[in-house]
Backbone:
């Protein structure tokens, strides 16, 4: 993952990765001490475990930063809608999302239009007549 962020020149992400090597070293030492407190030896298994753990934790932190940091209030509302759709399994009915968002109809409409225009979501309509339901789907 680090290489992907380097290629994109993503400074915020690189700040998280900057100390990853140090974290791997510390966790490898802890692993070695837990295996043999009297004479700890850092093994390949210790380094692999520590490396995988640091990569997982760093990816999770970057995911959380991406989902919970906003440029403005409208961006926050858009990301809130994405979270609700993701929590529903990537697909949610219009009425369910409208109710969860607690936004006026006009604001909700702007949020949905913006996300459809930028390709974050698509919609599909199921049924006909009074049983027609609009669903929003994450891309």
Residues:
């Amino acid at each position: 993952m680090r290489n992907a962020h380097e290629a994109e020149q993503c400074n915020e992400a690189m700040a998280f990765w900057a100390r990853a090597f140090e974290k791997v070293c510390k966790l490898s030492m802890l692993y070695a001490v837990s295996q043999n407190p009297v004479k700890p030896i850092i093994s390949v298994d210790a380094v692999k475990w520590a490396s995988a753990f640091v990569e997982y934790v760093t990816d999770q932190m970057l995911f959380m930063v991406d989902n919970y940091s906003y440029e403005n209030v409208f961006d926050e509302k858009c990301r809130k809608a994405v979270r609700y759709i993701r929590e529903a399994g990537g697909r949610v009915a219009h009425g369910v999302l409208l109710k969860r968002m607690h936004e006026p109809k006009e604001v909700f409409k702007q949020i949905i239009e913006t996300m459809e225009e930028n390709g974050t979501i698509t919609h599909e309509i199921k049924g006909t007549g009074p049983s027609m339901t609009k669903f929003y789907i994450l891309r």
About this structure: The first strand starts at residue 91 and ends at 93.
